[in-house]
Amino acid sequence: MVLAAGLGLRLRPLTLLAAKPVLPVLNRPLLHWTLDRLARAGIREVVVNTHHLAATVRRALGNGRAFGLRIRYAHERKILGTGGGPRAVRARLGREPFLLVNGDVLFDFDLGEVLDRHRASGARATLVLMNHPDVESYGGVVTGRDGFIRSIAGLPRPAPGRGALFTGVHVMDPALLDRLPPGPSDSVRDLYAPLLAEGGKLLGVRVQSAWYDFGSPSLYLDSQIAMLSRGFGGAPRGSLVHPEARVKDGARLRRCIVGRRCVVEAGAELSDCVLWEGVRVGAGARVRRSVLAMGARVAAHQVVEGRILIPSRRLRSRPRGSRLGDGQYSMELP
């Protein structure tokens, strides 16, 4: 199951245009990367829950055939959370352990190995963990020497030891969901913490792989620049230009992602930028550390730095902290 129902509040105003799990990342909807990895691990059926801008998720993923998957959707009129979402579709999840994946992160670790480790452990659930310099802001997971979890974000009680980051990818015995009442709930607070308090076995599997968070517009931009520097997913280590984009002779790009049907005119200079589909950058313009959303326009010789540009026709309301000019909103990159 892939969790794609969140509001994406921290990523606004970008999530006023599309649900967070399908925002473009290296010129692909974010969830396309996840579905590729699920298919590679031998998964064939996926449940995707939706709420905010659900149509953008369905449009981006379709029925799953393009990934060798069968996708079924579960729309939530009220957001049910990381525990309540799976609980609501318990009947679809069968009796065998299933993967539960947050739809708003990107990773490249081997899911097949994680499934194998879970089956061999006898644990009720297995959480994928990794070291991270800012682990405490996410809530650390402390494991014993045997790999079994002692506390998650200090629950059910703090445990000594250096915590690891929970990546948002876990394997769960679906029978665990029967412990939750219908309605909203959280998988850590309402399921895993009480299970640990009872002495239940939860395994932590540490991985050393790429993992990217897109929790704010700045992280959305910085993560993609970091992915370019690593050549993630076969991306070039300079700039990524969609085959259907046009970058005119004399334009210069440095660590940029340029989307489909974009046009960058001669003499323009762009660095550390993400351009969604249909963006136009005029001749001689200077654009640095910015996100130009679908159909945005930068005039000839205009200077844009540390901004988000969104055409006003794409939005129903004005984003907070923005200013309107030339038919589009401009706001500082949060």
Outline the secondary-structure elements:
Elements: E1 2-4, E2 24-25, E3 28-29, H1 30-40, E4 45-50, H2 54-61, E5 70-75, H3 81-88, E6 98-102, E7 105-107, H4 111-121, E8 125-130, H5 135-138, E9 141-143, E10 149-152, E11 165-172, H6 187-197, E12 202-206, E13 211-213, H7 217-230, E14 240-241, E15 246-247, E16 252-258, E17 263-264, E18 269-275, E19 280-281, E20 286-292, E21 297-298, E22 303-305, E23 307-311, E24 322-325, E25 328-332
Parallel strand pairs: 1-4, 1-6, 4-5, 8-12, 14-16, 15-17, 16-18, 17-19, 18-20, 19-21, 20-22, 20-23
Antiparallel strand pairs: 2-3, 6-11, 7-13, 8-11, 9-10, 23-25, 24-25
Helix pairs in contact: 3-6
Tell me what you see in this structure:
The protein has helices at residues 30-40, 54-61, 81-88, 111-121, 135-138, 187-197, 217-230, and strands spanning 2-4, 24-25, 28-29, 45-50, 70-75, 98-102, 105-107, 125-130, 141-143, 149-152, 165-172, 202-206, 211-213, 240-241, 246-247, 252-258, 263-264, 269-275, 280-281, 286-292, 297-298, 303-305, 307-311, 322-325, 328-332. It has 334 residues and is an alpha/beta fold. The protein folds into two domains: 2-213, Alpha-Beta Complex (Spore Coat Polysaccharide Biosynthesis Protein SpsA, Chain A), CATH 3.90.550.10; 217-332, UDP N-Acetylglucosamine Acyltransferase, domain 1, CATH 2.160.10. The longest helix has 14 residues, at 217-230. It starts with a strand and ends with a strand.
